[in-house]
Amino acid sequence: MTAPLDVSGSATEAQPESVLAGAGKDIQGRSLTRIAWMRLRRDKVALAGGGVVVLLILVAIFSSPIIALFGHPPLEFHQDQIDPATLLPKGAAGGMSSDYLLGVEPVNGRDIFSRIVAGAWISLLIGFLATVVSVIIGTVLGVIAGYFGGWVDQVIGRLMDVFLAFPLLVFAIALAGVVPDHGFGLEGNGLRIAMLIFIIGFFSWPSIGRIVRGQTLSLREREFVDAAKSLGARHGYILFREVLPNLMAPILVYATLLIPTNILFEASLSFLGVGITPPTPTWGGMLSEAVRFYTLPHFVIFPGLAIFITVLAFNLFGDGLRDAFDPRAH
């Protein structure tokens, strides 16, 4: 019979130094941003939407060289491409060719491809800047309402209700009709772009304001806020150093979803003739002009596709961001 081996405690128990040395190799802390990025990378649909968004931004930024390489000046008439008898584009498919990738417009022969590319920067500019205005106003008022509560919350809450009930489209149409040609150091379409950014951004903040208020109501009861108060921190320090950084994820997600809404609203105003003044190309304005030539599907389809793809890409990317930052996601 073999005697059992005598194993000492030092041989069976791991030393603290070796445990700590090995733990650092296998266990790594992950921030919320890193976890969200890992989830987003697994969402191929959201990544595809984000890729289209990046492509649209690059097209808007480099619209001039793109037009110079693949098209013609967006305001240039090409009467040689128009049949004088019918005032319609010559050839099949609305005049599509290697020189005119998406064909030409009836009557004047302007290059549709160039006008869609040139109109991208107006739609994205208004969509982005109007969202920035909404996010700033909604975040500030939402944080104040949620943190202080009481009568402050009641006043801001009623103000949100008033703005949400405001007939924004009717107001925009009425205001566009009385905008002067000059004002605030701007003129022409520059003034109209500033007006659209102000109207869309200023009257869209209550939606994000309610989301921020709800999140702030939850955050103000957390332990780190109580700890900051017990150490004598001022309200401003708590709001901007403790509460606001924890609101960046929902703000980013909602801002991404708000951009396509603002782009659609700008296109609607241009379609109704109260947006950007022609002949400056806009997607909504092109659709408005195409209504008269409903027998030419290419004239309607391409600007409509530009709006559809842009809105869809932002929505897919925004949905992916929302799922990535959702702590309940697995």
From TrEMBL:
Residues of the ABC transmembrane type-1 domain: 120-318
Record's subcellular location: Cell membrane
Keywords tagged on the record: Cell membrane, Membrane, Transmembrane, Transmembrane helix, Transport
GO biological process: transmembrane transport
SUPFAM superfamilies xrefs: MetI-like
Membrane topology reported for the UniProt record: Multi-pass membrane protein
Chief place where the protein resides: membrane
Bilayer-spanning residue ranges: 45-70, 120-147, 159-179, 191-212, 251-276, 296-318
Lineage top rank: taxon: Bacteria
GO cellular component: plasma membrane
Assigned protein family: Belongs to the binding-protein-dependent transport system permease family.
Name this polypeptide is given: Peptide/nickel transport system permease protein/oligopeptide transport system permease protein
The species this protein was found in: Nonomuraea maritima
